[in-house]
Design brief:
The complex is a heterodimer of chains A (436) and B (150). Chain A is α+β, with helices and mostly antiparallel strands. In chain A, helix 3 runs antiparallel to helix 4. Helix content of chain B is 36%, strand content 17%. Classes of the chains: A alpha+beta (436), B alpha/beta (150). The interface between A and B is medium-sized, with 33 and 20 residues.
């Protein structure tokens, strides 16, 4: 059997990419996951700018995970400048990462994945046939956005998060508002778990190297050591020993390896690495949804996102308890006036890594003694998954070749979609081309 | 990005004016499907933004009538687009599909002459900002629009 498959523009993913697949007599002769968006050149834009400008500039890399970019950037700045933020600042950053994870995962599972579960081509016909489902997703997304708005001024491109702390520390009433929003999300989140309990994901398993940060004390999103099974845990500053980027001619995004292996990052990787640390409520959801790590089915990344949403709600409530207690006994920012401590430039290098919704996000800057950026490197989660997606397609295609061509295309798109790729960010992605 | 900031300039000017209390001036940013929450509950919305491809260096304005919304129903182009690219028409289609009430929408477009990297508007674009503010306040005074949105 021969196919020349060209999926030109993979649909319902963030950005533009193509799958080129040439099969002759049942053997794959050519397979490429082409990333066709223009390069973004953010690293070059940073050169010559003051390091304190890096967070608001790099926030613009993404309209969905802007808080993660801001947080990774701030951490890199603080590492370079020798700044240690207060416990309260770190706690508030963790709530913001949870809120962003919620809005990003909810958007993906309701607006991009749910149409597949009903055999619909897009969210529009699903919205017409099942408006209650989509309205529930939009309610959850709005709630997560509202948390960000209350805490840092707006949900996209936050203006309150800065190097050293927050421009305006939250008032007691702000934290009470965030608690009210989180508690209000619980019934819709319970319905979300029930909804995904009624739908199964395609069966396909291929073990790979699951990479994330890891912290013995908690389900790591903000801080931790670089971790993959059978690898010694590494400080984030040694990330180049953990992963390596390389350029491929057919893609404007780099590919990433760890050792000789392709890697997977994101919800499934985090759950495989850190399941023991997740909240009890999320564990119960995981059991109901049939995702008990280790799980090697990339389609289950969608389910992993549902589980992480449950965790993010309950963990945020726990963090709020700590913040409430702290605020009554200690000032928010280190200077005690609600402001950010003065910052002295110094020559150095800094690395910041956080778990963005789609996986580990790395920022590294080198600065001179005036605090001017002389080198910059950002490694985006989607870029880390691209090679692994190619390997998954390669492994999955022989088992679906008997299907009608349209079904092969659909299954390939679903596979790519399960990774929730953000091509616009990685361009540094999707269209499938068949050759017959 | 130069003249891409034209809408924000108009919003800044409008926020300095004494507007009726039933008018909200909002810097919408790039909210994607978040536009639904921003527009819900309003009877009328004026969208102000920079536009590319205008034939003349003049303001472009017009209403998004119900007939245009009907055309959206048959236009599947863009349904599968990335959520990064969700624009006003995609959001209106989603609101329609969900059976939500859609406000009357007026577009005020300000031609962009220069969108290269840089801070501030071009001289040509800057000249159009007072005209846009005047047009919007007149639309509002005539009772033709009750809400303002960028």
């Amino acid at each position: 059997m021969s196919h020349d498959i060209n999926i030109h523009h993979i649909t319902r993913v963030e950005g533009h990419g193509n799958i080129v697949l040439n099969i002759k007599e049942g053997r794959i002769e050519e397979l490429r996951l082409e990333i066709v968006e223009s390069p973004r050149f953010f690293e070059v834009m940073l050169l010559g700018r003051n390091i304190l400008e890096a967070p608001p500039i790099t926030s613009r890399i993404c309209g969905i995970c802007a808080i993660s970019h801001t947080a990774a950037s701030i951490k890199a700045c603080e590492d370079a400048l020798g700044i240690t933020p207060s416990e309260n600042v770190v706690l508030l950053r963790k709530i913001l990462l949870h809120a962003e994870l919620l809005q990003s995962h909810i958007l993906h599972i309701y607006l991009l994945v749910a149409p597949d579960l009903f055999g619909e081509g897009s969210v529009i016909p699903l919205a017409a046939s099942h408006p209650d489902i989509i309205k529930r997703g939009l309610r959850l997304k709005k709630a997560a956005n509202d948390i960000c708005r209350v805490l840092v001024g707006r949900h996209i491109h936050p203006i309150g998060m800065v190097v050293g702390g927050f421009t305006k520390p939250p008032a007691v009433k702000d934290l009470a508002e965030v608690r009210r929003i989180l508690e209000g999300m619980i019934p819709d989140m319970e319905e979300t778990v029930r909804f995904f309990e009624e739908h199964s994901m395609p069966e396909f398993n291929r073990p790979t190297k699951y990479c994330s940060i890891r912290d013995d004390k908690e389900y790591a999103l903000y801080d931790g050591l670089l971790y993959a099974k059978d690898n010694p845990p590494l400080e984030v500053q040694r990330y180049k020993e953990f992963i390596a980027e390389n350029v491929v001619s057919y893609s404007t995004a780099k590919q990433v390896r760890s050792g000789d292996s392709s890697i997977m990052v994101g919800a499934l990787a985090r759950l495989n690495n850190n399941y023991a640390s997740i909240s009890e409520e999320a564990k119960k959801a995981a059991e109901r949804l049939g995702l008990v790590p280790p799980c090697t089915n990339p389609f289950m990344n969608n389910i992993g996102q549902v589980i992480e949403c449950v965790h993010s709600i309950y963990d945020s409530l726990k963090i709020l308890d700590i913040l409430d207690a702290n605020l009554s006994s200690a000032p928010f920012n280190k200077d005690g006036k609600g402001g950010v401590p003065p910052i002295e430039p110094r020559e150095g290098k800094g690395v910041g890594v956080v778990e963005a919704p789609r996986g580990s996000l790395y920022h590294e800057y080198g600065i001179d003694d005036k605090g001017v950026i002389r080198s910059a490197n950002c490694i985006i989660p989607t870029a880390q998954n691209l090679l692994n997606i190619e390997k998954d397609i390669e492994a999955m295609v022989p088992s679906i070749l008997q299907l009608p061509r349209k079904d092969i295309e659909r299954r390939l798109e679903m596979l790519v979609r399960a990774y929730d790729p953000c091509i616009s960010c990685s361009t540094h992605f999707l269209e499938v081309k068949f050759i017959e | 990005m130069g003249d891409d900031g034209a809408g924000i300039e108009v919003v800044n000017e409008l926020q300095e004016l004494a507007l009726p209390e039933y008018v909200d001036v909002i810097d919408g940013g790039t909210p994607g499907v978040g536009l639904i929450d921003m527009m819900s509950g309003y009877s009328r919305v004026i969208v102000v933004d920079a536009v590319m491809g205008a034939c003349h260096p003049e303001l472009v304005s017009g209403s998004l009538g119900k007939e245009i919304l009907k055309q959206f129903q048959d236009d599947r182009e863009g349904d599968n687009c990335s959520l990064h690219e969700t624009e006003l028409t995609s959001v209106l289609r989603l609101m329609q599909a969900l059976g939500m009430s859609i406000p009357e929408i007026t577009i005020v477009g300000i031609p962009a002459f220069n969108i290269a990297p840089g801070i501030g508007l071009s001289e040509e674009c800057m000249k159009l900002i007072p005209q846009a503010v005047k047009l919007i306040t007149e639309l509002n005074r005539e009772g033709r629009c009750h809400d303002i949105f960028r």
